[in-house]
Every structure is written in structure tokens, then in C-alpha cells.
Design a protein that fits this description.
The longest helix has 18 residues. The chain is globular. The protein is an alpha/beta fold. It has a single domain, classed as Deoxyhypusine Synthase. It contains 13 helices and nine strands. Strand 7, helix 11 and strand 8 form a beta-alpha-beta unit. A six-stranded parallel sheet has the order 6-2-1-7-8-9, with helices on both faces. Strands 3-5-4 form a three-stranded antiparallel sheet.
């Protein structure tokens, strides 16, 4: 039987209001996406406080070309995540930005003109060639050579990225923060990006190099099977989202899940699938606390994280 909830209350803004106070005001009775965002913040907070809960964080590469990268670094350093699953492009942007800047641009820029000038457009962020592919090659190849000399032949993605984090001095780097805080990073699609291409280039003259994805999967199995509870903050869809919910189905699903997406549901895509759909697959538990928030993660993720900082 459907029953009305609490009365809807007006937001009372005031000078000096904190993000946490604004989020509380959203939750006091606001409707639409504001209420969903407040629910997401509350569920994330419950996940952080739950004893024995392994906290997964997944996200696509694109947001790391923006200042949202700093939010992820903050999450790592504040102990807000225990496991990261992401895409190869995250490594691309994270490493490239340790040595070169990206720049503000425009969504409506002339892409043909940008191509002629050697500038790649990522939404309204401009990434010059010298800030991306060229910078990565100069950075990655010497590190791979050092690791080869040290005897590395069949690393998992988590082992490989830990070594890169160890050799990255920039405290603003995701890889460095993960190394410092002992948070493993898994990339099931490691060859799908510039970093993956650098691995392929190195492999041309070092054919014994192989990325052991099965070792990653074994580690994820151990994490999931030994967890008392699991929760996930999932940004965007694709392989990073699916790898989180796929592994958690083997323990009858996540206990907590917050999903941020801009994708529509009607096309049947994984990115568009709401958290409630994952219940039918056993990837989210029947009694789990979960919510899907529709919107831009570069706006929503900082608010969820800021509201839960202690």
C-alpha cells in the first residue's frame, strides 16, 4: 500500500551554509533530483560507517580530465574507498596531468580547426598533443624499462599501477594517492587507451611482457568472498560499473549502492540501467540501500563527498 511520506519543506538558504547543511535541506522534503542526491549522500554515509564494509569506487576516465580528479584523490586519502575499478583512460589523464596541463575549452569549438592545431577536445576541455600522447610516451617508457630491468614480466594491472604510483611524486595523482593509501586499482580493459598503447609499444621488443588479468580477478574474488558487507559508489557505466556489480553478485549482491549516470534507461544499456535492475540479477541485494541519481558527476560527486567529509 502506497502511503505519503514526510511533508515537503522549503529550502532555507543562509549565508555561510555548508554543503552538509544544504544536503540535509535537500533531504528534508525536497523533490526531484535534489531528494535523490540527498538520499545518495545518506547511503554513501551509511556505507562509510558500516563496520566491515568493503567500499568499491568505479568511474570512467573522462572526469579525470577535469578538477573532479581532485575529488577522487580526496576520497582515496580520506579512506572513503577500499577498491577502485576504472578504465585505461584514467591512467592516461592522471599521468599526463602530472607533467603537463590540460586547458579550458568550449563544447562548440571548431573541431576541424582544433585538429589542425594539434588539440584534442574532451567536451569543453582542450588537450594538446604534447600534453597527452607525447607526454605519456616520455613518462611511461622509462618506467617500463626500469620495471623490466627489475624483473617484472607478468604483472597484474593492480601490481603494475602500484609501481607507477610509487614512482609518481605528484600528490595530486590518483595513482600516487592509491599507492600511499594501499588502495588497489583494477583496470579490466587495460589496453583500451594511450597507456595500453604504451604497453603494446614496449611489448614489441619485450615479448615476455604479459598483463596477468587472471591475477586481478583472483584478488577481486578474495576481496568479495571475505567481505562482511560491500558497498559501491559508481560513476557512469561501461566496463568499470559492470565489473563492480558482476563480482558482487557472487556474494548475493551489494549492501549499499549509489549510481550517478546521465544515460537513458529506455535503450537497455548497462549505463542506463538503474540500480533497481541490478536487483533482478542478484548484483544488488533485495534489502540493500541503493539509489540512482541522474546528472553530471562533475557536479554531483563533489557534493556527495563534501557532505560526508569528517
Amino acid at each position: 500500500m502506497v502511503k505519503p511520506g514526510k511533508p515537503v519543506k522549503d529550502i532555507r538558504l543562509r549565508k555561510g551554509m555548508t554543503v552538509k547543511e544544504l544536503m540535509d535541506a535537500y533531504g528534508e522534503g525536497c523533490g526531484f533530483s535534489a531528494k535523490k542526491l540527498a538520499d545518495a549522500s545518506e547511503i554513501f554515509g551509511d556505507m562509510l560507517k558500516a563496520k566491515g564494509c568493503v567500499k568499491f569506487l568505479s568511474f570512467p576516465a573522462c572526469i579525470n580530465a577535469t578538477g573532479t580528479r581532485g575529488v577522487i584523490v580526496k576520497m582515496i586519502r580520506e579512506g572513503m574507498c577500499d577498491v577502485i575499478i576504472t578504465t585505461c583512460g584514467t591512467v592516461d589523464h592522471d599521468l599526463a596531468r602530472t607533467v603537463k596541463d590540460y586547458y579550458h575549452g568550449r563544447f562548440d569549438a571548431d573541431d576541424a580547426e582544433l585538429y589542425e592545431k594539434g588539440i584534442n577536445r574532451l567536451g569543453n576541455v582542450f588537450v594538446p598533443n604534447e600534453s597527452y600522447g607525447i607526454a605519456l610516451e616520455r613518462l611511461v617508457q622509462p618506467i617500463l624499462a626500469d620495471l623490466w630491468k627489475a624483473g617484472m614480466r607478468r604483472p597484474s594491472t593492480s601490481e603494475l599501477l602500484r609501481e607507477f604510483g610509487k614512482r609518481t611524486e605528484d600528490p595530486n595523482s590518483i595513482l600516487r594517492a592509491a599507492y600511499d593509501m594501499n588502495v588497489p586499482i583494477y583496470i579490466p580493459g587495460i589496453t583500451d587507451g594511450a597507456f595500453g598503447s604504451q604497453l603494446w609499444m614496449f611489448w614489441q621488443e619485450h615479448r615476455e611482457l604479459a598483463i596477468d588479468l587472471m591475477k586481478d580477478e583472483q584478488e577481486l574474488m578474495d576481496i568479495v568472498f571475505t567481505a562482511k558487507k560491500t558497498g559501491a559508489l559508481i560513476v557512469g557505466g561501461g566496463i568499470s560499473k559492470h565489473h563492480v556489480i558482476w563480482w558482487n553478485q557472487f556474494r548475493d549482491g551489494l549492501d549499499y549502492a549509489v549510481y550517478i549516470t546521465t544515460a537513458p534507461e529506455h535503450d537497455g544499456s548497462l549505463s542506463g540501467a538503474r540500480m533497481r535492475e541490478a536487483v533482478s540479477w542478484g548484483k544488488v541485494q533485495l534489502k540493500a540501500k541503493y539509489v540512482t541519481v541522474e546528472g553530471d558527476a562533475s557536479v554531483l560527486l563533489p557534493m556527495i563527498v563534501a557532505a560526508n567529509l569528517r
